[in-house]
Amino acid sequence: MRRITTLIAVSTLAVGAATAQDSNELSIDGAPMVTEVAAPAHMENVDTIYSGWRFRSVETQSLEMDDFDNPAFVFVDKGIDLFDAVDGSEGKACASCHEDVAEFAGLRTKLPKVQDGELVTMEELVNGCRTERMGAEPWKWSGGDMTAMTALIGLQSRGMPIDVAIDGDAAPFWEKGKELYYTRVGQLDMACSNCHEDNYGVMIRADHLSQGQINGFPTYRLKNAKLNSSHGRFKGCMKNIRAEPYKEGGEKFKALELYLASRGNGLSVETPSVRN
Amino acid sequence: MASGVKPRVKVPKSAAAGETIVIKTLISHKMESGQRKDGDGNVIPRSIINRFTADFNGQNVIDVTLEPAISTNPYFQFESTVPEAGEFKFTWYDDDGSVYETAKKISVS
């Protein structure tokens, strides 16, 4: 334990010397993306927000700039097949009601949002359709079918600015998410903010810390060669700080998702992004 | 046997005669190496793409032998000169005997 403490002390000292985000500009197949914008008014400690893309190496960045090179599109293609695939007792596919997946353009920018007093995410909308209209089994939150579908639906909003509502009905959920963001947990006793607000741009072991933006989710990660949901990523972060992860799809992660999305208001949707 | 296999290629629609173009190809395939074991300790049989070829108007451009260490969804990027208008034909050979083919036309301006 003493050795770990020493390591942390050393890495904290090294913080000042590391470099921050780069100044590269992202365009995907010719379409420009906003990766840097003034922070939303509610963020007290950050002036400018940056997409996670800006913190990656040039090699990883280039993978996202061309849809053929972006490995996530293997899964988007799977999502297209799933969209047309009939499943469940009603003999319906997504395409039976939703003629064209393009009708979901803009949806990703507004989620999660409050509906009938409940905070709903895209995963819940998809599973709601599956269980109530198709008579099919719900998909697992971070399963391959679900992430393929959320990537396909999110892709329709690519390039549009994130714009989640944080007032009105959403306010209590947002407050809860904000509290979680700043609450220290786990054996390392760290909050989201300790890395992604206080130390973004500096190295965490061999990697640049980003601002923890979720504008590119579900994201293809080189480390596991598949699409990753935002809740799956939250779990990964919590394990890294030796905390007991909350449940995927639970109230805590949903509130945190809303708060994190609101910290990215103004950034382009990059779904499906490529990260390491 | 392998499921979800889908070839993808990216070839420019047109080129100048004699121009060198970049071709990108990717096939979704799980490339099971034959080295792994399942939960009961039985070896999972090898199932990979073992050969990839590209031909232009019947003339071979590239012929690749793939080995088990190549990871999932093998991607190839290579160059080819285009002497005339015609068609690129891409062929992947699976261990199970399946052959996946796709073709792309290119015009010369």
CATH C-level category of chain B: Mainly Beta
Major sheet attributes of chain A: 3 strands, mixed
* Largest interface, C-beta within 8 A: A-B, 7 and 10 residues
Query: Overall pLDDT of chain A, averaged?
Result: 88
Q: Name the CATH superfamily assignment of chain B.
A: Immunoglobulins
Parts with pLDDT < 50 across at least 5 consecutive residues of chain A: 4-18
What is the 3D shape of chain B? elongated
* Strand-residue proportion of chain B: over 45%
Largest sheet of chain B: 5 strands, mixed
Shape of chain A: globular
Separate helix tally of chain B: 0
Radius of gyration of chain A, taken over Cα atoms and rounded to an integer in Å: 19 Å
Describe the structure.
Chain A has 2 domains: 19-66 and 162-275, Cytochrome c-like domain (Cytochrome Bc1 Complex, Chain D, domain 2), CATH 1.10.760; 73-155, Cytochrome c-like domain (Cytochrome Bc1 Complex, Chain D, domain 2). Chain A is built from 11 helices and 11 strands. Chain A has helices at residues 2-14, 58-64, 73-84, 94-97, 107-110, 122-133, 144-155, 171-181, 192-196, 230-240, 251-263; strands at residues 27-28, 31-32, 36-38, 48-50, 113-115, 118-120, 203-204, 207-208, 219-221, 226-228, 274-275. In chain A, the strands form 5 sheets. Chain A has a 3-stranded mixed β-sheet. A two-stranded antiparallel ribbon of chain A has the order 1-2. In chain A, helix 3 packs across helix 7 (144-155) and helix 8 (171-181) crosses helix 11. Chain A is globular, with a radius of gyration of 19 Å. Residues 4-18 of chain A have low confidence and may be disordered. In chain B, a hairpin with a 2-residue loop joins strand 4 and strand 5. Chain B is elongated, with a radius of gyration of 16 Å. The interface between A and B is small, with 7 and 10 residues.
